[in-house]
Amino acid sequence: MIKKELLRRSIPDFLDGIDTKEKWEKKRNEIRDLFLKEEYGFLPEKIKPTIKTEKQGINFAGKAEWESVFFTFEKNGKSHTVRTELILPKSKDNVPVFLFLDFEAKVPSKYLPVEEILDGGFGMLAFCYQDVTTDNGDFTNGLCSLFCDENGKCTFGKISMWAYMAIACMDYLEARNEVGKVAIIGHSRLGKTALLTSALDNRFCLTCVNESGCSGASISRGKTEQNENIKKITDTFPFWFCENYFKYIDKENTLPFDQHMLLSLVAPRSVMIGGAILDVWADNEGQFLSCYLAGDIWKLYGKRGFICENRLPSVNEHYLDGEVCFHLRDGEHFLSRYDWNVYMSKFKGIINN
Ligand code: GTR
Questions:
Q1: Which atom in ligand 1 lies closest to the alpha carbon of residue 333?
Q2: For the segment 164-205, what is each residue's pLDDT rounded down to a tens digit?
Q3: Is the CB of 186 under 6 A from ligand 1?
Q4: Is ligand 1 within 6 A of the CB of residue 214?
Q5: Residue nearest to atom 8 of ligand 1 (CA)
Q6: Which residues in 65-86 are b (16+ Cβ under 10 Å) and which e?
Q7: DSSP helix, strand, coil percent of the chain (3-state; round to 5)
Q8: CA separation for the pair 99, 96 (Å, rounded)
């Protein structure tokens, strides 16, 4: 079945001839730069933010400590502050932490079940993506305002800017003594962001990419009418990408890569792709094929890669044994408790290893 799908989607064998870890590591930076040049835009230069923290009274039934952490970035006389929330299980060391890219500034939020995560033994650092910069074509606000030109133009898209903040959060987590391993997690447009972040920054031991779909974990070639494609996504969200990406509208077959190669940049660390059966827009087959095609890169590191049957999993069946994981949940587009449990159980396995 897989062969037939691959033929229908006509994905060239981009990784042909890469049969050793050394050859791959030479190639990987080229691939990374291609994604930045052709799709998302290069991230701006790193600025070290000033950090201020403020303790919050709520401690989740005494289980946790909550601090708001303010990141202030300054450049050319302009500055912008992003508020983040750090919630850690009380008096623990070496705490595994999820860096969560959220749609809301609220804690807990629709997609962030704080107590369940704490009860799982994890801490979390969360920020609302629109506090970094708004989700629209205005590049003069938030962090983008520090990097745009006098006409309010940036050379990168908004996904790159959100990824920039995620990397700054990782710098901060690394400096905190109580924090152990860090996973990154995002849903949908923030799943795209989580995947790009981890492709650029190898400090995340686990990358959870929930229903990221088009221009995320899903293959761009061979979309059906019901799937989102480059034309549809750039018609609605042109500001997520850099200008070069528009060359590929209705010309997916001319892309010098496909999205599975973004996944492969995460190797040899673990990556989990989550889908929901009714989320046809995100293209589950394309997300699954990405795992299938990227998996071999892990084998160059002596790892297992993607372990699967020769078909898409059925609903609520999981392919979680390798470092590349795929699960297909019942229901619609959402980051549910079910998904969190799947991600947390893998994270536990990584810590205990
Ligand atoms: C949709 C978009 C998808 C996905 C989603 C989301 O409208 O077309 O690519 O990112 O939004 O972020 O919720």
A1: 13
A2: 999 999 999 999 999 999 999 999 999 999 999 999 999 999
A3: no
A4: yes
A5: 233
A6: bbbebebebeeeeeebebebbb
A7: 35, 20, 40
A8: 10
